[in-house]
Specification:
single chain; 350 residues; three-stranded antiparallel beta sheet; two-stranded antiparallel sheet; ROS/MUCR transcriptional regulator protein; ROS/MUCR_sf
Length: 350
């Protein structure tokens, strides 16, 4: 067991405590080493080898490093002891065949990158020690802000481009540009492509310019403007068989001339009503709520007026009311309920 140093001040009072209540006599994440001694976090005393001293506390090196936020490679010895052990290891590397074989394996792993990959795999999911976190913060603090910002931006662009290439590869295309051009030409929206890739619907809209600025510029005319052609591709493909050459004329005839509802139009072209409403907005076709029922009501009003020699219902109602007829008498003559007649009169006045 390592004997404590008698010429070093001992921290008798804890400077803190671990999450489980264990007193801490030295700052976590820091291994205090002065010349040939190192301070023990558990008792505050100084030893040539804290690692050897840990047995008196019932601890081992691995649990000690983990508990106090030290890196796995952090030495627990003072400078003299550490140098002595380093010299002993160099002698073993030179004369011990087992150690030489192990070192050769390590060099081979390092040269092929396998050692780095193994270390990354072992560290995945493991919390970063406090000591490493402090080192990282010190290193970052020494780097100018503009350099860090530029590096972060480059890393962000690289991640976005990697996602884009994966999106294209999964869809069976050789490149991201080919994927986007082909699908947009087929009438697919950027939102649809984003959702197919399991991303937010606005992912491509937000990042296309970053991933491929030239591609975004080429597609600007297709994905912008009041009536981009790609939005009408699917609808146009469905109405060609109905005898229409453009979307605007189809919507005007069906909704304004034939008084079909948005839902009826959507059923005919096998699209959802929201898409039909969006197409009407793009092409400036005004929507008439309840168009079929309003058309039937208008036809009924004309038939009532014509049956009594008037051009429209308003003239008929005005004539009868001026003659002193009640709504009940007009209803008896026209065959329509009084409430229906009064409602038509109010709508005509408005």
């Amino acid at each position: 067991m390592s004997a404590p140093a008698t010429d070093r001040p001992v921290e008798r009072h804890p400077v803190g405590a671990l999450a489980d209540g264990t007193p801490c006599h030295a700052p976590p994440g820091v291994m205090e080493i002065a010349d040939e001694h190192a301070r023990c976090h558990l008792c505050g005393q100084w030893f040539r080898s804290v690692g050897a001293h840990l047995r008196s506390h019932g601890w081992d090196r691995a649990s000690y490093r983990t508990a106090f936020g030290l890196e796995r490679g952090q030495s627990l010895e003072g400078g003299t002891t550490r140098d002595r052990r380093a010299r002993a290891m160099r002698r073993r590397r030179a004369h011990d065949p087992v150690v030489r074989a192990g070192c050769e394996i390590g060099r081979r792993w390092a040269s092929t990158g396998e050692l780095t990959r193994a270390a990354a795999t072992a560290a995945r999911g493991r919390r970063q020690p406090e000591q490493r976190r402090r080192k990282t913060l010190r290193t970052l603090a020494s780097i100018p802000v503009d350099v860090r910002t530029e590096a972060a931006a480059r890393a962000s662009v690289s991640r976005l481009r990697a996602i884009a290439e994966t999106m294209a590869t999964d869809a069976g295309f050789r490149s991201f540009a080919e994927f986007i051009r082909t699908r947009v030409a087929a009438g697919d929206s950027l939102a649809r492509l984003s959702r197919e890739a399991g991303l937010h619907k606005d992912w491509l809209t937000r990042h296309l310019g970053t991933v491929d600025a030239d591609l975004a510029a080429d597609l600007a005319s297709d994905v912008g403007g009041p009536c981009p052609p790609r939005h009408d591709a699917r609808l146009l493909a469905r109405i060609v068989g109905l005898g229409f050459r453009d979307v605007a004329s189809y919507l005007r005839q069906r909704h304004l001339d034939e008084h079909r509802s948005v839902r009826a139009i959507a059923t005919e072209v096998e699209m959802n009503p929201q898409s039909v409403r969006a197409a009407m907005t793009r092409h400036g076709v005004p929507r008439t709520p309840h168009a079929p029922s309003r058309q039937r009501t208008a036809e009924l009003a004309r038939s009532v007026a014509h049956a009594h020699g008037f051009d429209d219902l308003d003239d008929y109602l005005t004539d009868r009311r001026r003659a002193g007829w009640t709504w009940q008498r007009i209803a008896a003559e026209s065959g329509r309920p009084p409430t229906w007649l009064r409602r038509r009169a109010r709508s005509d006045m408005s």
